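Ticket #4471: structure export looks truncated?
Reporter: QA, pipeline team
Priority: medium

Steps to reproduce: submit the single chain below to the structure queue and open the exported record.
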Amino acid sequence: MDGATSSADRSTRINVVVRLTLLRQIPASERSVLGAGLAVALLPIALYTFASAASQISMVVAGYALGTIPFLWVCLFWRDLGDERSTLIRVLVTALICRLGLLYIPPILSEDLWRYIWDGMHIWSGLSPYTVPPNAPSEDIFSSLHQLSDVRAQIGHSEISTIYPPTAQLSFAIATSLGPSVLGMRLLMISADLVTIGALWTWATSIGRPPQVAALYAFAPIAMMESSVGAHIDSVGVAALTLGAALYVRRRTLGSALAVVWAIGVKIVPVFILLHWFRNRWRLALFTFGLASSSALLFFSLYPAGSDGVATYAHRWRANDGIFSLVYSIFEWLWPNHGTQIEVGPFVESVIRLVVGGEVTPGFVWPDELAFGAAKVCAGIIFVVSLLFALVRARTVEGFWLWVMGTLLLISPVVHPWYLLWVLPSAALILSRERGGWGWVFVLWSQLVWLAYLPRQAYVVSGVWSEPTWARWLQYLPVFILICVLCVKHLVADSGGREETGPEEELDVSMTPEDG
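Actual output as written to the record:
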């Protein structure tokens, strides 16, 4: 017996020595970056652990904010990581540990998770989640049959039917394949993040960039928190889009098409990347568009779509907007609300109804409707001009996507924090260049977007979302200043005859355009 115990002790000591030896083989600079990544996750976990029940959300948001401090170390020293496959494995393992640790925090930053579970169970039951909102009396039987009463009670805006497209619904179905599971949904988002990290590493390698730039996504507070705690489906869409882009530059036609189809089915907006593909590989772009369209038609034939959820979101939703808020305030000043409608004529009235909805009064609209509609029209014009500019100037997938999606986020009336996940991989690739200032714009923004959660604690208690004006300025002003600095720098470089490229002008050395 003593011999067996002694043997076990020796085995334990050998294992410890092996682990310590392997750890010593990792360069100190690399260990510091991985350690900083771990600190990003540990801060919100620690603050949540010692928070009172009444302040848990505020403490998690504070941890989200403090996580930007160790992430700054990652931003400064990510190049100290190696570019070997063993480094990728260490980054993935560390990123996984961080995200699994964050599962300790309940999903208290958003109610979206509960909608996902509700929709996923509808898909498995052969019912369309689009036609009836969760709070409809006709859903009582469904809720009781599948033991979803607790899930149903926590769905945000349960008076509105779902807005999520086909492959988002299929993702929800995958996560609920064993039943309505919060853990299953969160693990799906974590798995998607790991795919993004690996795909970004591959993408960077394929175009001659340092692949360790993937650490900027792996250890970004926004990526960790919005996948593990927020559990947002955007993590799946970003993974599919990043994988599709990585396969595209490696000329893996079928794989890139399937991945981008999945991304389009999660959030629709990746369809714009096909316009860039069309310029270089038009057959692939047409094939991908046809595949996305046919799969959507098939899905909606099985699960008929409704329009009230999408219409409500598209017409009147506003949240954490930046440039759109400034434009809207100008029109609001031009047409103050005096309690009477404004006569605008039938054409203008029809345009306003198209973009903001509301009750139809032929030829008349309310001042706030006119201001909101005019701001939306201006935002649409800015986006179209930006899209055309990117189509002419952008030479790389990452440059095109950062320009187009970045513009859309800057002018959108709705900018939830997790939306910035969509530009983070491209921003990382752009800033990996010697002059990658445009990538830093969105990395900076992603480190300030936690400010959008400040009203969350009070909202849970009162049901009223009241965002302090100073928080909006603190989030957007540094971003706008950096954009202005880069624009001036670009103009000065042009006037001086020096080469200073933005994301839209990068030369894509990884591929050449195809004829026809």
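Status: closed, not a bug. The export was complete when the record was re-opened. Leaving a note from the reviewer for reference: The chain has a mean pLDDT of 88.
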